[in-house]
Amino acid sequence: MRCTHCGWTNPAGFTHCHNCRKALTPTDARAAVPGVSHASGEVFAGEGARIVATLVDLCLLAALLPLLLYGGLHLAGALQLGGGALFGLLAALALLAILSTALLDSWTRGSPGKRFARIRVVDADGDAPGIGRSILRTIGKYALHPLLSLPVLLLERLVFGRHSLHNLMTESYVVSAKASREAIRYRIGNDTGSARFRRLARLVGVLLVVAILALAALLGYAAVTAEPNPRRDAARAVVAAANEAARRVGDSWQATGSFSPQWNEAVAPVLESLRIDAVSGTLTATANDPLIAGARIVLTPEIVSKNDHRRIKSWRCTSPDLTTRELPFRCRSTKPNAPD
């Protein structure tokens, strides 16, 4: 039926205009949809089912993301990609993994988590959301709910009621997979509780999209305009070889309880030499690459103790011979210097 206030065409069964939220005539839309159950529990999904669906999707994402990134690194190695191109490839693969649930919500009956919890996402007409709406909803969901923070969930429920902010700002609804299209349309048409927050949610959605686009533009600009840095590329290969050596030194220390001052294995081609301090375990790798020949990469173990058990928590990486701009990001610790 057509709203006499704003002209919006509403599905049969609506008692309030979906656009302006004003009452429609005739007001008794229930008669226009005979045989439809109007109990909210049979249409809108419960909080528990939605949390279960999200947790299942996050578990699958945690398994999928490392595989995609691992494959991306191998592809980058085969194509000899580095710097901004490598970052762009890995970022695209990570984004694809995160948005996979959005694609499934739009193109199928829902993501694996939603199918497991027997719920699905629909728009105001009871149909699957479009791809743009679904992507924006997913971005808003994971941007506004970091690690399903309980205070965030409670605050959102207190302010916005049963519908989450990311659903309100995209005009999406999470419903039971068993609910009929007619029942969904009736319940949405008569759900006036969220109307007062709809404009606020849309504003938040617009600001979120603008922020994401601005961030993507800045990252893309930085990747495209980044100047080639051959010395940093050479240092990255040396740091990778030094990290592998540090891993083996750590395994030996864990097994014997002491650091061996001698390196008894073959040295990687990018390294000229490796030295190990028997007291502190500090590993000094000297580069063999002509671009940074003689430059030292220093890895110092950070040893922690708990319940009489000692382990190496991490290796701090730095170089007394290379500038910060010439070092990979993860090798810019200001802690140690190379021993004389």
How is this structure best described in words?
The protein has 340 residues and is an alpha+beta fold. It has 2 domains: 40-224, no CATH class; 230-331, Glycoprotein, Type 4 Pilin (2-Layer Sandwich). It contains 9 helices and 6 strands; from the N terminus they run H-H-H-E-H-H-H-E-H-H-H-E-E-E-E. It has helices at residues 47-79, 84-107, 112-117, 131-144, 150-160, 165-168, 181-189, 195-225, 230-256; strands spanning 119-122, 173-176, 271-276, 283-287, 296-306, 309-318. Strands 3-4-5-6 form a 4-stranded antiparallel sheet, covered by helices on one side. Strands 1-2 form a two-stranded antiparallel sheet. Helix 1 (47-79) runs antiparallel to helix 2 (84-107), helix 2 crosses helix 4 and helix 2 packs antiparallel against helix 8. The longest helix has 33 residues, at 47-79. Mean pLDDT is 78; it is low at 27-41 and 335-340. This is RDD family protein. It is a multi-pass membrane protein.
Comma- or semicolon-separated keywords:
disordered C terminus, two-stranded antiparallel ribbon, 9 helices, 2 domains, 12% strand, alpha+beta, four-stranded antiparallel sheet, Glycoprotein, Type 4 Pilin, 47% helix, 340 residues
Distance between the termini: 85 Å
Radius of gyration using CA atoms only: 28 Å
**How helical, in percent, are the residues?**
40-55%
Number of beta-strand segments: 6
The amount of beta strand, in percent, is: 5-15%
Number of domains: 2
Spatial strand arrangement across the major sheet: 3-4-5-6
The succession of helices and strands, N to C, reads HHHEHHHEHHHEEEE
Describe the sheet with the most strands.
4 strands, antiparallel
**Helix count from the secondary structure assignment:** 9
Low-confidence stretches: 27-41, 335-340
Mean pLDDT: 78
The chain-level structural class is: alpha+beta
Shape by Cα distribution: elongated
